[in-house]
Please model this.
Amino acid sequence: MYINDLSPVAGSTHVDKRKGRGHATGNGKTAGRGHKGQKARSGGGTRIGFEGGQMPLARRIPKRGFNNIFAKPLDAINVSVLERFEDGAVVDVQAILDAGVISKCKYGVKFIGNGELTKKLTVKASAFSETAKQKIEAAGGKAEVV
Model:
C-alpha cells in the first residue's frame, strides 16, 4: 500500500455547495438568499436576542440581587455519607470520589450537617457548615479546612 492509494471512506466526504455559480447549479443568482430583504444583504441579519423591536426577553424579566459570574460553587455533601468510611480513616476529596459518592469535583466539597455520624474520622474539605463541624467533632473526629 502506498500513500497515493489512500482515500476517505465512501460517504464520509461530500462536495461543498458553490453558491452563485450559475442557475444550473441550483444555487445561482440569489445564492439561496431569496429576493431582497434584510437577510439577502451582505452583513444583513439581526443580533442575538433581537425580537423585531419588541422588548427582548432578557430585558422583560426582572433582575434581583447580585450574580457573581466568578463564583466557584462547592459540591454539598451530607455528614451521613461519612458512615460508609472505616473508623479512623482520613476522608478527602479523592477518597470521596473513589467511594463513588460524587462522580466529579470541579472546585471542592462542603460538608453540611444532615444525618448522623458515629465513626471517628479526619475529614479534609474546602468548607464545613457549623452543624457538620459539630457532628464530626462530637464523634471524636477532626474537620480540617483544606
